[in-house]
Amino acid sequence: MSSEAMTMTMDKEKRDDDYILEVNNLKKYFPISAGIVFQRQVGAVRAVDGISFNVVRGETLGLVGESGCGKSTTGRTILQLYRPTEGSVKFEGQELSTMTGNELRQMRRKMQIIFQDPFASLNPRMTVGSIVSEPLQIHKIYNNKKERQQYVEELMEKVGLNPYFINRYPHEFSGGQRQRIGIARALALEPSFIVADEPISALDVSIQAQVVNLMEELQDELGLTYLFIAHDLSMVRHICDRVAVMYLGKIVELGPVDEVYENPQHPYTQALLSAVPVPDPQVEENRQRIIISGDLPNPANPPTGCNFNTRCPVVFDLCHQEPDPPLIEVRPDHYVSCHRVT
Amino acid sequence: MGVILEVKDLVVRFYTQEGTVYAVNGVSYDLEEGETLGIVGESGSGKSVSSLAVMGLIPSPPGKVESGTVNFEGRDLLQLKPDQMRLIRGKEIAMIFQDPMTSLNPVLTIGTQITESLKLHEGMNTSQSRKRAADLLDMVGIPDAYRRLDDYPHQFSGGMRQRVMIAMGLSCNPKLLIADEPTTALDVTIQAQIIELVKQLKDEFNMAMIWITHDLGVVAGIADRLLVMYGGRIMESGSSHEVFGDSRHPYTVGLLGSLPRLDSSGEEKLIQIEGSPPDMRNEPTGCPFAARCDVREQFELQRCWDERPPLEIVPDAIGDGTHVMSCWADIREGVAQNV
Questions:
Q1: DSSP per residue over B249-279, as a string?
Q2: In Å, how far is B119's CA from the nearest CA of chain A?
């Protein structure tokens, strides 16, 4: 083996090993209770039902699916904002699901979240300065007030906000600017990993590109790793390196973004991608849509067999009998969970 | 084909405590029989308000239609008395709204809600109207339709509720259907179902349609013609092929450039329109897009601030002369000057 080839193999191994996040068989069930005085559990909503994936340092992994598929719950369970029912979440090699108190708080310095709704996620009674510096106070960084303010001003500049507005309140800003405040707050502790939970869904079209470009610039500059949760599949293709498609609490397909979009293997991914409109009348005229009928089943009462069998256009006997198969690698790095594929 | 709806110089304002909101500032368009017009714009662009004005649904006060005419089959709808308008609304022109949860009455069965307009406009009795309502529900793809007439809105999923809304809209065979962001609250697979359904029903009923949306992808597949609105004004209008394939207004160009596409790997950075949408409380002078326009900035055009550009046929249009825009600059010339 030539030395060059050897370095390449080593590089690949090094990259493969450098997982910032390892999720294994993660489950989050929300109990359904009945009874007024004597509450008892009568069932559970299986929001996340046994998912496994890894996130490589420096990449952007997209998590897509329709509302109710469990993508936001996954993001929050990873950060331990919800405690998992079962399974393991390892961040930089450390198990989070058993961590508590101060230990967990220390980990939060490295992993942050940007929320969907920039109107609901900022306290209306706090100024921008105090919103962005709150994480610094909690973690006792920059105890010198002047230094702290200087750092907050730097952060504001970094996300494209005029530091002059440091004493203003959230209602004085537009949606896009508020999302920038949310990003500045997430960046304050210099995290290495950020869960972006639909960060652009609430924004106007012309503002979405601004926020996405900002997120990409920050990633290049600070070497961030993103878990990008979204339902806008076009934006996911633009921003993500790899994508995981979720349906009813499970990952049905996972792979490099161009590979999955050009060569979708799971019938749900195929239908989902074909349903997304393209802003070009010529393309739209010639497109064949796969229209799947019906709605998402109730996650408290999923169908027996494969989760997708109630809506699947290519369903056959096995799909009703056997639960969905584990993710199988169909091409390099491209995984799919479907009885048709195995 | 004749013109079914002609809107001319429509101006709508809202007089609120925080000042006057200049929502629609002179909007004119025609709609032909059987045609689908897509109205595209971001929030606050006046796309919904201009259509509510057509329906006579501007809440007044605080809203007021200041001037303009809305000509529908030879009558100016803005001059009609409320009881005359009521005979048109729901019968001749129907509307479906964005959020089917808030636009259906939660305490009435959907049967009651669909039969209401049938009884009012078509003079049907209870059993006739229930039969017709069941047929309509069946047509929009709701299984077991007759039994479901007695269900309440909360017993339907989001997509099914939107189907109920469509059935209500179509109940009296309207000549014009106005759909105000009908799929925005729905997931993409459900959105695809609803778009297919509406396309098919539009042909069946031979209606004209106005489809209001912020999603350029949705209108690309459904609209014959497009209006691009910004700041209460029409920026560009033409056939979908013209507006998408030969966009001339800096706003349209910017908007299309800022959209990532499903069918391209998207390595390049997205073009971003700087700044944020205008505050509609400021009295409009000049072009509403001037503050964010890169063409104006590049060539330091003073005129854009001072004078409102008229809606004029674009130079060297490829189509049949319906491609118009409201801009002082010719971006093709601008590009040429630049080179």
A1: SHHHHHHHHT---TTS---SPPP---S----
A2: 31
Q: Are the beta carbons of B187 and A234 separated by less than 8 Å?
A: no
Nearest residue on chain A to B279, alpha-carbon basis: A174
Which chain A positions have a beta carbon within 8 Å of B274's beta carbon? 210
- List the single residue in A with minimal CA-CA distance to B244: A280
Surface-to-core class of residue B114, CB atoms within 10 Å of its CB (0-12 exposed, 13-18 middle, 19+ buried): buried
The predicted pLDDT at position B115 comes to: 92
Crossing angle of helices B110-122 and B158-170, in 10° steps, is 10
A212 to chain B, any CB pair closer than 8 A? The answer is yes
Amino acid B51 reads S
Global confidence as pTM: 0.87
Dist CA A295 CA A311 (whole Å): 8
A308, A326, B186 from A296: Cα distances, Å: 9, 21, 12
The answer to whether A279 contacts B217, with C-beta atoms less than 8 Å apart, is yes
CA-CA distance, B8 to A29, in Å (whole number)? 57
What pLDDT is stored for residue A6 in this prediction?
A: 45
Look over chain A and give the mean of its residue pLDDT values, rounded to a whole number: 88
**A326 touches B at CB < 8 Å:** no
Give the Cα separation of A45 and A197 in Å (integer).
21
Average pLDDT over residues A174-181: 89
> Which residues in chain B are contacts of A205 at CB distance < 8 A?
42, 214, 216, 255, 258-259
Parallel, antiparallel, or unpaired: how do β-strands A19-34 and A40-56 relate? Answer: antiparallel
A252 in Cβ contact with A338 (< 8 Å) = yes
- Using 50 as the pLDDT threshold, list the residues of chain B that sit under it: 336-339
If we measure between CA atoms, which residue out of B12, B36, B6 comes closest to residue B177? Answer: B36
Among B18, B99, B144, B189, most A C-beta atoms within 10 A, so best to mutate, is: B189
Structure confidence by residue, pLDDT tens digits, A309-324: 999 999 999 999 888 8
A149 class by beta-carbon count within 10 Å (0-12 exposed, 13-18 middle, 19+ buried): middle
Question: pLDDT by residue (tens digit) across A240-296?
Answer: 999 999 999 999 999 999 999 999 999 999 999 999 998 888 888 888 888 888 788
- E strands in chain B: 3-16, 19-32, 36-40, 63-72, 75-76, 93-96, 176-180, 208-213, 225-230, 233-239, 312-313, 324-325
Which of B249, B238, B246 has the alpha carbon at shortest distance from B288? B249
Residues on chain B touching A235 (C-beta within 8 angstroms): 260
The residue in chain A having the minimum alpha-carbon distance to the alpha carbon of residue B142 is A294
From residue A178, give the alpha-carbon distance in Å to each of A203, A210, A219, A224: 10, 12, 19, 21
DSSP B89: B
CB proximity B18 to A under 8 Å: no
Confidence at residue A243, expressed as pLDDT on a 0 to 100 scale: 96
Q: Which residues pair with B312 in a beta bridge?
A: B325
pLDDT (tens digit per residue) in A41-50? 888 889 999 9
Out of B187, B193, B260, closest to residue A291 by CB: B193
Which among B220, B276, B292 has the least Cβ separation from residue A284?
B220
Query: Dihedral sign, CA of A113, A119, A123, A129?
Result: positive
A252 and B CB contact within 8 Å? no
**Per-window interface: B 22-61 vs A, CB < 8 A:** 42-43
**pLDDT at residue A57, rounded to an integer:** 93
Q: Is A204 on the interface with B (CB under 8 A)?
A: yes
- Chain-centroid distance of CA B146 in Å reads 32
C-alpha distances in Å from residue A54, one per residue of A91, A114, B324: 10, 20, 51
